[in-house]
Write a structure and sequence with these properties.
20 helices; alpha/beta; about 500 residues; about 15% strand; elongated; four-stranded mixed beta sheet
């Protein structure tokens, strides 16, 4: 009888190599055991020098490690050489308000040996962390970016030095010696950047991509990626915590420590401040600027950016069409698109909204089969018809009174444009002239597009669907047979 393979109770894969017992008849593989994001009650750290055992939830490091009296360490009782004991990082030294900082570069594989992420745990009152839950999708996006982009750049991470020493070589340079111990570096900012390399390491350890393992020829290439040099801003959080205490009035310090339930400030108190400030003060780029930049990056031939590849239809079709409608002199939307999302430009159409509204067209094979110039000419003719039917919506002094160039109107009308492409293809019509388009749109002259319209109260994606259906119903009632058929389809879907 064939022996049943032992499977990891965490990831479900077959355990190859070392296993770790976590409960009766339950084992986890070495990879899951060493994952800094996972906690198992039997995972602990023993510091013989300070006689301390950490077993509380999510504050542990990655594997059982013994710190010896002389500062070196061994793992599970094994001996390690001096080269393996420490990671030596040349750094630039600088001070900010009396607190020493370091700037250096580490190989990704070295960071993976020493990193730890102090996650926020909802029900953990004491020793509560501060980091958000990591997202596997974001880590995989970083991995794909590192692997596929021709010129990948990983910005500096912010790390707190928990275990290490500094030796000066010059007035503003020196060497950081970091003990090769999981948790020697606490990642304050950049967990997903390092998580991208963690994905690579997992793949090298046998994790599958979908249903397949990586091929042998891929191993060397992935292994080389772990030599990627990552800039690191090190903070000496222990020294910073002591510096903070020295600046506080003794009575205030006593009350503060009593409130925190601790005897002294720790490195986590400093790290939490930096994490909060970095993430609270950062502001994401506006969606319109993001779409514009994505298009420019894609057009320059740079590939492998996950966020661009995921929605390639935007950079390849929708965004360039929207930009052309804004810039071309014969476009009915000339000068009306806010391409960066900046405020105060008096441009009624947000590029991001118009781009997103083109999704049905950009994914319609009948539309994408047209040449780029034919696609643009169709949209120019289409919106020119709209401007003739509802001229007030395109005049600067009255357009605010209409829904046409607002997000709701744009979504409705570009969905209708997609219908006209389908209806024309069914009839075998290839010449999408203004007259042909107008034959479908003419009844919209009588539709209430003003702000007091019944559809003005619709909001969100569901609201767009309902408002679009109202417009299709209106065209159906005005004698457009294709609209009648479409309305019946929409009604059946309910």
């Amino acid at each position: 009888m064939e022996e049943k393979a032992m499977r990891c109770a965490c990831c479900g894969y077959e355990i190859v190599g070392n296993s770790h017992k976590i409960a009766a008849n339950k084992y986890v593989c070495e990879r899951c055991w060493n994952n800094p994001f996972l906690f198992f009650p039997k995972k602990l750290i023993e510091f013989e020098t300070i006689n301390y055992v950490s077993i509380f939830c999510d504050k542990i490091f990655c594997r059982k490690t013994y710190i010896l009296e002389n500062g070196s360490y061994n793992k599970e009782g094994g001996n390690m050489t001096e080269r393996e004991d420490t990671i030596k990082v040349p750094v630039i030294v600088f001070e900010q308000k009396g607190v020493r900082n370091y700037l250096g570069v580490m190989k990704a594989r070295d960071i993976l040996d020493v990193w730890h992420v102090d996650r926020f745990i909802e029900n953990q009152v004491i020793f509560r962390g501060y980091q958000r839950q990591e997202e596997e999708e974001r880590m995989r996006q970083v991995y794909e970016y590192i692997e596929k982009c021709q010129i990948p750049i990983i910005p500096a991470i912010l790390a707190s030095l928990r275990m290490g020493s500094f030796s000066k070589t010059d007035s503003n340079t020196g060497i950081l010696e970091i003990q090769r111990v999981p948790g020697a570096l606490e990642i304050v900012d950049g967990q997903h950047r390092i998580g991208g390399f963690w994905v690579i390491k997992r793949l090298l350890e046998g994790e599958k991509i979908g249903r397949r393992r990586i091929a042998k020829e891929e191993i060397e290439r992935l292994n080389d990626l772990l030599d990627f040099e990552v800039p690191v801003h090190f903070i000496d959080a222990n020294a910073a915590a002591k510096h903070m205490e020295d600046l506080i009035d003794p009575e205030a310090k006593e009350n503060m420590l009593k409130e925190l339930g601790k005897e002294r400030l720790g490195p986590e108190d400093v790290e939490r401040v930096h994490f909060f400030v970095i993430n609270k003060t950062q502001k994401a780029i506006r969606p319109s600027l993001k779409d514009t930049l994505s298009y420019l990056i894609y057009a320059s031939g740079i590939k492998g950016i996950p966020i661009i590849e995921k929605e390639k239809w935007k950079a390849e079709i929708a965004t360039p069409l929207t930009l052309d409608l804004h810039f071309d002199s014969d476009s009915p939307l000339r000068g009306m698109v806010n391409i960066s999302g900046a405020r105060g430009l008096q441009r009624p159409v947000q590029l991001a909204s118009f781009v997103k509204s083109l999704e049905p067209l950009a994914k319609n094979e009948k539309f994408t089969a047209l040449s780029p110039s034919q696609r643009l000419n169709f949209l120019k003719n289409y919106w020119r018809c709209v401007s003739k039917l509802i001229p007030g919506a395109f005049q600067q002094d009255t357009r605010k009174d209409y829904l046409v160039l607002r997000t709701l109107g744009i979504y409705i009308l570009n969905r209708l444009a997609n219908d006209i492409i389908d209806w024309s293809a069914e009839k075998g019509i290839k010449e999408l002239s203004e007259d042909h388009i107008m034959s479908y749109l003419e009844p919209l002259r009588e539709f209430n597009w003003k702000r007091d319209s019944p559809i003005s109260s619709y909001g969100g994606e569901k609201g767009v669907r309902e408002a679009y259906k109202e417009v299709i119903k209106f065209l159906s009632e005005k004698g457009i047979p294709e609209a009648k058929k479409r309305y019946e389809e929409l009604t059946k879907k309910r």
